[in-house]
Amino acid sequence: MRVTVVLPAGHWDPAREVDRLVADHDGRFRRRVLMQGTKGTEFLLDLETARHLYDGDGLLLPDGAVVRVTAAHEALLEIRAGSMTLLLQLAWHLGNRHLAASIETDRILIRNDHVIAAMVRGLGGLVQEIDAPFDPQSGAYHEQDSRAPDVHAHHHHEHDGHGHTHDH
Questions:
Q1: Which of 17, 33, 54, 135 has its CA 20 to 30 A from that of 25?
Q2: Could you tell me the CA-to-CA distances from 89 to 81, 108, 129, 132, 161 in Å, in that order?
Q3: Where's the UreE urease accessory N-terminal domain (predicted)?
């Protein structure tokens, strides 16, 4: 079986799920590879370009059934701070080191790295080792993260002659 369509998380019917593909972050960045679900469904993922498969995405099989993508648990660092300002400063330091990071409202998740953990603690951050799924934000010059709103969409107002949205 050949899979050429990825259905974004939350945009497909869970009743169509026949199997799950469990993979870590690196194993979910793919273009063309033979894969096997946890129940034994074998298929060739054959995408036009390499892309990241997010937790909850669906891989559309030729018969209309779906294999759910599930992010495997990985050794991560959960970074928190006593204030939003400090959390933002820590995010800047992590970004300055080009580290893949999942940025949430009150925490940042990165891959476990004792050197970075020491740096974060030295800057006043709180660090805890955890095992959790890892779905970091995509880079600014890579494909758009299917979980995020389209940052390229803009809205025209009535005063410019038309009142509708364009996606670029």
A1: 17
A2: 10, 12, 20, 24, 43
A3: 2-67
Q: Is 2-71 a CATH 2.60.300.12 domain? A: no
The structural domains of the chain, with segments of one domain joined by +, span 2-71, 73-133
Q: What phi and psi, each to the nearest 5 degrees, are found at residue 127?
A: -125, 135
Mean pLDDT, all residues of the chain: 87
Q: Which residues of 49-69 are buried (b: 16+ CB within 10 A; e: fewer)?
A: eebbbbbbbbbbbeeeebbbb
Q: Please name which of 90, 65, 68 lies closest in space to residue 80, comparing C-alpha atoms.
A: 90
Q: How confident is the model at residue 53 (pLDDT cuts 50, 70, 90)?
A: very high
Give bridge partners of residue 3 from the DSSP assignment: 45
Cα angle value 119/121/127 (rounded, 5°) = 110
Which CATH code is given to the segment(s) 73-133?
Answer: 3.30.70.790
Residue 35 C-alpha from the chain's centroid: 19
- Looking at residue 139, its pLDDT comes to 67
pTM here is 0.73
